[in-house]
Amino acid sequence: MPASSLNPAVPIPQAAAAERPSIPSILHEWVTTTDHKRLGLMYIMAGLLFFVISGCMAALIRVQLAFPNNDFLPPQMFNRMFTMHGTAMVFLVGMPIIAGLMNYLVPLMIGARDMAFPRLNAFGFWIFLFGGGLLYFSYLAAPGLSGAGSAPDVGWFAYSPLTGKAFSRGHSTDYWILSIMISGIGSIASAINVIVTVITMRCRGMTLMKMPMFVWIVLVVAYLIVIVLPPLTAAQIMLLLDRFLGAKFFDTQAGGSAVLWQHFFWIFGHPEVYVLILPGFAVATEIIPVFSRKPIFGYAVMVGASVMIGFISLGVWAHHMFTIGMSAMSNTFFATSTMLVGIPTGIKLFNWLGTMWGGKIRFKTPMLFCVAFLFQFLCAGLTGIMLAVAPFDWQLSDSYFVVAHFHYVLIGGLLFTIFGAIYYWFPKATGKLLSEKLGKWHFWVFLIGFNLTFGPLHIAGILGMPRRIYTYDVGRGWDVWNLLASIGVIFQAVGILFFVGNILWSLWKGKKAGDDPWDAWTLEWSTTSPPPPYNFEVLPEVRSRRPLWDLKHPTDPDWKYE
Amino acid sequence: MGAARRRKPKILRREGIRAARATFPLTQNHVNPARISKLKRLGLVVAGGTGSWAFGADSAQVHSIANIFKPLSAPAEAVYEISLLALLVCAGIFLVVGSLLAYAVVKFRSRPGDEGTEPPQIYGSNQLEMAWTAIPILIVFVLVLVTARTTADVQNHPLPEDSLKVRVVGHQWWWEIHYPDHGVITANELHIPVSSRDQRRPTALRLESADVIHSFWVPQLAGKTDLIPNRANDMWVEPYQTGTFLGNCAEYCGTQHAKMLLRVVVETPEEFARWIASQKAPVVQDSSAQAGRDLFFNTSCVNCHRISGTAAEGVFGPDLTRLMSRSTLAAGAASNTPENLRLWVQNPHTIKPGCLMPDMQLNPAEVEKIVAYLLTLK
Ligand SMILES: [Cu+2]
């Protein structure tokens, strides 16, 4: 079937290939595209760009904190930096990269030709990009046109009343609100798109229980996004009303409630953590089986555990608020629900272990990142259990221990799997393999750097170091740990250089990948690399969860056992 | 900025630390008064001496390493016990799962010659799934029970009627401290008595905020509790060792959140009584500083600062009645020496950039006079 009749917006490649396209025409193609693959790649590239920017901010933060009483950054600049770093890493790095992976992979994995709503998809990307630009634009324009600009400095969770007009003058907080609200529209759009695509566009034979695990997990993620972003948007609208029209929702000087904002924020904010980490699980659940050469262990249980995590995560938000003086009863309730999340999470870990057990594990770069993920996520999960013990949290909350914990989740968990995903699917998207040699350098240097930075920070927290301080005094026992953490950043930065270098070098001179370089089993590997705009010449039909296994082993297909 | 940096004051506590290292006493009997009273309630006889718990009874000693695993107060001790349990459970899980993972990685790696062959394809095992669902459920069950118990123990802990009551009000970026039963107001340095084995002397803290959210955290005394505007919170501490304990504001509260430090001076009951009495004593006018006094009352200092028994009744800044009885300035931003005081009055932003006391634009002679007056506020 010709592609043009399915989706007239997609240019037919043969026609374009006839002569070398000019740069404006290439740009025009990318800007006007509604192809899920191109949008996916643009999401990921935008996310990586913001990653580099806010990574540099993190490095500056670590320079300031490397020594006690350091003068490198003045207090306000420091406060802006950690606000921008946190906000950007969550909303402009984590979210778009996840959206990019979902966009790129879901149609390919379910044997569809595009997302259900291609133009909504394009809209989502561009509005996200606009929101992201707006956040950084605050550096130029936030206090209003007359004043010199500057970025928000209220922290990524922007607790009221610090965000009220009385304590946050100028417009930096307004930029924070608007940019997050706007990029949130993009997230909602792509979440709805994923849900509809997965529900309605699976190829023949692919029942829900025959979907790749990746698709299952991102379906849960998409539902979570649709459920939890609106409370944040609502709270942000209330805050705008407070700031512009004199409403008093969060205005404590006029009887408003500071705690109300925290409830709204964390009803969004906690599930958001799962929105960020579940795609990491999704990636690991694709990569680990392929490189262990075994099917995923306990597929049905893994599906159940993912759905359970989604559900339970909606009822744990107040564990971010153990110190606000809730009753012992409420504290115990939220401690309990939080620990319950540990059960499905533990099940997942064991099933990954079960997948590797008895396999023949090939330690290519994607797998290395996933193995490191398993260890680091184990640490993150266990420190999470400690934080769930409400009394323990009275000590640890808002200390550097928490900083270490969630960086183990978001870097050790999410970022490592994102790197794994890029090494795994880069050949599909570009037709070129990434260099294994540079990949291993990237992996080991980054692994050392990450653990050197965030391991010691646990101890700083245990020694009473609060987070978000721009400086600290000598003699509190924090110096060594902070210095180690800052040294770790150097390694992380070098690791990232290897990564960027690898991408550029491999695009230029990388080995040809072929359709299926990893001998994998899901549908995306059955089409060419890169896939044509219409993805599949003939829409596939599947009989099991591993259609390519069935093809490669006609005498011993999976569907006999499932 | 450049000049400000050069003149950056020597920051406090170097000396204190050395002293602390030298004399840090190991407390052999960490007894939790909360637990003792419970035992007493059960009618059990508590064996042990009657002496004070205040070892190395030197309230000048600074406990500068605020290790949450070295609690020196009842609620912190209760938290410590459950923390240790949680830590051990997690360490156990880490060892088991971590070793399994490491074993799998080493044992099941593909070896040369494996190419082209696939391992046995195994799809799952119901027994295993049951096992690794049941074990986490059991662990969670145990942790939930101990959490419920400690949470209730600490939060609903009954305090004796006559325990000391203190009201702490958070400000951007300092602490206002009231002793309502004694009519004493001070700032940034909280004085409380030490508990002894035969006499509990817990302190009940009522936490409020005048502006944004702050959090009261002195790790060796108790977990943190937030100070939230338009909402009063309660917490309590019951230290069983004297000395000065360090803490911080632990909720981001704006520009100078980092220099919103806390000092809690735990004293023997006699020392504490003496301290209260000295704070309550009528302010004596020192005529030698009359010029500075006049200047102080003629500039806007009085709009923001209070000096008991005078016309200075401002509440925007810390109470200065007994300024010189404090060992630090501006919530621990600098030690309280005449030089630092001079720097502060000249321009507080050299010590605490961005703080809410404005640069008063005084000339050096005026600064000299005002500082001379401030030095009399003992
Ligand atoms: Cu504060």
- What share of residues of chain B is helical? 25-40%
Distance between the termini of chain A: 32 Å
Number of domains of chain A: 1
Number of strands of chain B: 13
**CATH architecture classification of the largest domain in chain B:** Sandwich
User: What Rg of chain B is obtained from the alpha carbons, in whole angstroms?
Assistant: 27 Å
Give me the Rg of chain A, rounded. Answer: 24 Å
CATH topology-level fold name of chain A: Cytochrome C Oxidase, Chain A
CATH class of the largest domain in chain B: Mainly Beta
CATH class of chain A: Mainly Alpha
CATH fold-level name of the largest domain in chain B: Immunoglobulin-like
Q: What's the order of the H and E elements of chain B?
A: HHHEHHEEEEEEEEEEHHHEEHH
Main sheet summary of chain A: none
State the CATH superfamily name of chain A. Answer: Cytochrome c oxidase-like, subunit I domain
Q: What percent of residues of chain B are in strands?
A: 15-25%
Task: Set down the secondary structure blueprint.
The complex is a heterodimer of chains A (562) and B (378).
Chain A: H1 3-6, H2 13-17, H3 23-32, H4 36-65, H5 75-109, H6 118-141, H7 172-200, H8 213-245, H9 258-292, H10 299-313, H11 328-356, H12 365-388, H13 390-396, H14 400-430, H15 436-462, H16 479-509, H17 547-552
Helix pairs in contact in A: 4-5, 4-6, 4-16, 5-6, 5-7, 6-7, 7-8, 8-9, 8-10, 9-10, 9-12, 9-14, 10-11, 11-12, 12-14, 12-15, 14-15, 15-16
Chain B: H1 2-6, H2 14-23, H3 33-41, E1 62-63, H4 74-107, H5 126-155, E2 164-171, E3 174-179, E4 184-187, E5 189-193, E6 203-209, E7 214-217, E8 225-227, E9 233-237, E10 243-249, E11 261-267, H6 269-280, H7 290-298, H8 301-304, E12 328-329, E13 334-335, H9 338-346, H10 364-374
Parallel strand pairs in B: 1-10, 2-6, 5-11
Antiparallel strand pairs in B: 2-3, 3-4, 6-9, 7-8, 7-10, 10-11, 12-13
Bound molecules: copper (II) ion.
The site of copper (II) ion has 8 residues of chain B, from loops.
